[in-house]
Amino acid sequence: MSTKQNKQHTSDKKESQKTADQSNEQTVTEEVTAVLEEIIEETKPEKIKGEIVTLTDETNLLIGDRPYRIVMDYREGFNAEKLGERYSEVLSRYDYIVGDWGYEQLRLKGFFDATNRRAHPDQRIDALEDYLYEYCNFGCAYFVIERVGGKKEKNTQRRKKKKNQNRNNQAHIDEKKAPVESMRKQPVIKNRKPASNKTTTKTTEKAAERPTKSTSKKNFTIRQREE
């Protein structure tokens, strides 16, 4: 075998070894990646879905330990078992929960109270008709349940606290205003002498300073010439 052939053979051997090393590295990397993905999936917390629904009477129920009451049950759309299966913790922040049926599947949607001005108009319960018209099947069965207590009581306490705070602030402002007004002194207006008096006084003083000219003529007799 010639020298040239030996060099070519050595070069081909190196390239094949390099390719094998690269493939081994890729295989190892893929295996490590797969193991990491499995670990991440195992440690990822699963979203808790579902809750026990208990009917206390014909119109009141408990979802877990949260009290609700049935506001509307159109075409017997309310189903406690399906509600418990579809319920999610996210819905606990809303004042109302609307459930509508489509293709034998229950869909839940949360709404805020109509007096909640912080919420978007589409998320308030007074927009229910628009929601049913735009997003629900025509004439579908649905139900509406309202949260009893909880958030509404907190909102009422906040409003009372805010009103009391405003009253206290107003009383504090009134207290500050009172002494300021009483301590104000009315300005004393000095009676000024009329300007004409000053002018007259100055004229009199100047006249006194000037030498007095005798306005009276000397008495003399005109004698008649004798003829």
UniProtKB/TrEMBL annotation:
Matches recorded under Pfam families: YutD-like (PF06265)
Region (Disordered): 1-30, 152-227
InterPro entries named in the record: YutD-like, YutD-like_sf
Biased composition (Basic and acidic residues): 9-18, 172-184, 203-212
Polar residues: compositionally biased ranges: 213-227
Top-rank lineage group of the source organism: Bacteria
Descriptive protein name: Transcriptional regulator
Lineage: Bacteria, Bacillati, Bacillota, Bacilli, Lactobacillales
